[in-house]
Amino acid sequence: MSTEERRKFLKVGTLAAALGLAGKAIAQEGNANLDLRNDPDAPPPIGNASAKPRIPGGSDAVAEIDGFSRFKPSRGNDPESDFYLGKKMPGFRPASAGPAPFEAPDLDKLPWKMVGGAKEFHLVPQAVRREFLPGYFMDVYGYNGSMPGPTIEVTQGDRVRIVVTNELPEDTFTHWHGFELPIQYDGAATLTQNPIKPGKTMVFEFDVHEEGTFFYHSHIPMQEAFGQVGWFIVHPKKVYDPPVDRDFGLIFQNFNIPPTHTVSDSWAMDWNWHTINGRSGPLTTPLVCKHGERVRVRLLDFSPMQHHPIHLHGHTYWETGHEGARTPSSAWVPRNTSLVGVAQATNFEFIANNPGDWIFHCHMVHHMMNHMVRHVGPRMRENSNVDRYQQNTSTRPAVDYSREGQHWDTPGYPQKMQGMERTMPQMETLWNRRESKGMRATYPMAVKGLMTVMRVLPDDLYNLVMESDEPVEKGAVFAEIVRRFGDPSRYEPAPSMMMGMDDGKKM
Ligand SMILES: [Cu+2]
């Protein structure tokens, strides 16, 4: 029996049971104590608490196959089943609708025009300023005003023409990572071509016979360390089975940017600023999906030196491929953490069956913080400098960790994380993004460095967050999910005083 036949069979065989089961689960939730008794001031209920998880009209998807439910945490019956842990459970989107559009939060797509039978892209290597955190602008190298560069997205079988015009003050080379293309277009510095001089243009044109997760980058190491990379996604002509509803991409990078500097020390062996798609947590835009969807995430490590063990909370996913190709499903591996090495990509897929705001992060402790420095000493900012300090060492004050004041207001004294203290407008920037509507007010405290959030929202809350302009109180979506899917008796409100701010109101 083919997978397709099996699905149809299962659909007929289990639809009634599955719907019955979903109904039961909801009835249980409906009977739960919806009162968040620990907090009489908790945000009031929002959305439609009695809404049942539903399969969208027009979708063949079913709620449950072989004991695996797309609507509640479950593993299925048999590790040998194609549907164990949702392995081959399709999303809601039918394969006939084509591949789900690729989405790299905080990055644009590179536009193209059909010219002479090829998709023509214009890529511009240049120095760019990138806001890593609210108010922290760094000088890096990127493409078309962005670091990482904008995403190139094509379909297997396309012919592409990429017109690269170098706006850097120095030579560059552009490499199409993973492509099996004619040698003179490989972009390997001086081995296969001469440099693209400042102000000059080189045209790359080739047929894309592959499908998968690729990227482009400078082939000069120091430019790579400065951030020159971008996605090059090739969708398969025949949509991958099972089809997904979401296709997210995250590029992980490290930089060493000393306190008071905006330029990375690209030769450093140590790293203190960390970005996902060019943003440090909590400025990383949360990934938002709907309860029951099948979600793909593509991870790429483009750090100069360091690998990243990337961990998703609340779900078990299947690793379905890497940078070279999609893996045959017989070799997929279920995991919670994937170690991604430099210039490696890892793709995984899962059914979002556990609603909530799930932290999604690199697990290296040094990568879960921004701008840590180990100097504990005389790095003055205002009204002082290292020279003046050292001329006067006899009266140099002893280290005093409680000392405050302008001379001690330095990132290295004592060791601390820059960017933790934010002004109210900076906090508003974080709170007011659509994607973070209704999260706990204190979420920016939890999301740092190589961290973002995977939000799994029931239909009605997804619409409220992503499609409506209705205001949503801070914490209201979280509270609502605790009411419906969590343990309301253990609900904890966010404290009203955080980050030195107390506006007298609950946040
Ligand atoms: Cu890491």
UniProtKB/TrEMBL annotation:
Any one GO MF annotation of this record: oxidoreductase activity
Record Gene3D superfamilies: Cupredoxins - blue copper proteins
All residue ranges annotated as the Plastocyanin-like domain in the record: 138-238, 267-375
Residues annotated as signal peptide: 1-27
InterPro entries xrefs: Cu-oxidase-like_N, Cu-oxidase_C, Cu-oxidase_fam, Cupredoxin, TAT_signal
A Pfam cross-reference name: Cu-oxidase_2
Full protein name: Multicopper oxidase, type 3
